[in-house]
Request: fold
Amino acid sequence: MEEQQITKKERWELKRQEKLERQENGAKSRLIKRFLLWALVLAGTAGLIFGMVKLGGSEPDQSAILINAVSPSDWTKGNKEAKVVLVEYSDFQCPACAYYYPLLKKLSQDFGDKVSFTYRHFPLRQHINARLAAYAAEAAGKQNKFWEMHDLIFENQTKWENRGDAEKVFKEFANSLDLNADLFKNDLDSKEIKDKVENDLQSGVKSQVNSTPTIFLNGKKIEVPPNYDELQNIINEAVKNNP
Amino acid sequence: MTNSKTSSTRPSKIIPNWVIFALIAVSLIGLADSSYLAAKHYLGSPINCSIFNGCEVVTTSPYSVILGVPVALFGVLYYFSFLLLTILYLDSKNEKTLEFAARFSIVGVAASIWFLFLQIFIIKALCLYCLISTTTSATLFVLGLIVLKRKNVSFFQDNLRDYFRIS
Reply:
């Protein structure tokens, strides 16, 4: 019994020595080091990619709410008394806004009696002609042709977006809408209109708008699906829930 | 030839640590950037124009996809292989691996020049994350040139067999 214990102890001692020897020649520790290096790199990379995928794929912050309610100074079409209120912050030079324009127009045609549609300006800094386009729409609005100009501007976005003389194009639009040319020209430069566009922009900033188009449905920011059917479903749902 | 063989097996200090560190860091930035773009391509929210990223015309343009694969995914593969090559060097201490990476970096620069050309002259819009990738791939190329200069080898002289020998 005693002997066995000793041999056990001896054997253990022997193993320990062997292990120490192996550690001394370093082969094992080097292997561990290499293994750790690759494990660390692969785990780190996997983590990084996972994080970026989550970040890139995550839905944008949908918690934003509309701060400034629709007022008579806004451009609103459809049923102004409707229980379903849609407010769009948009930029005339933004290609995505031009993409959504026919969808939203169809929406206002299909739901005109149940929904009110408000357009607010949110000209982005990177779009050199966006503000001017907003002024043109407002100037046309002075002669009660805001929505007509709004449509023309979006439908012909490619004709003016990168031009240094976009004003000329807008004047042609005004002409085709039978607007008073002098009045239009004056309004285009008026401080009142510039202030109005700036006010829209500031109200958007207050409501955490950081991209266009941003759409608020009954005061809550919604993600706008890029096809009409899904968009229609969202509005149908809202109409059902707000009789 | 024999000269380069001996130098490749000796863990010399010809290539300074900061170059290795920079290679890893820049590859990681490029990897993060391109994964983000690839994720946005597959899962991202619908198109919009944003205060911070500009418009998504670039990343949703027909040029953002080659043979059905978003170019961002090629970017992920590119930066990942760059990272692996650098780590492989750390592991094997075979400087030929780094030389290969240095020559490989021309692929990223060529792609970046092409994308930059597309953005400026064809799509006429810039995308922030694409520009970050342009910067990282240019940096990798410069780091690669530093490696080759330190090793005193020319860009085109190579011997494929030496590249992946682990000492």
Notes: Residues 75-241 of chain A form a domain with the Glutaredoxin fold (CATH 3.40.30.10). The interface with chain B takes residues 34, 37-38, 41, 45, 48-49, 51-57, 59-60, 91, 94-97, 99, 124-127, 162, 210-214, 223-226 of chain A (CB under 8 Å). Strands of chain A lie at 75-78, 84-90, 115-121, 211-212, 214-217, 220-222. Chain A has two domains: 2-57, 75-241.
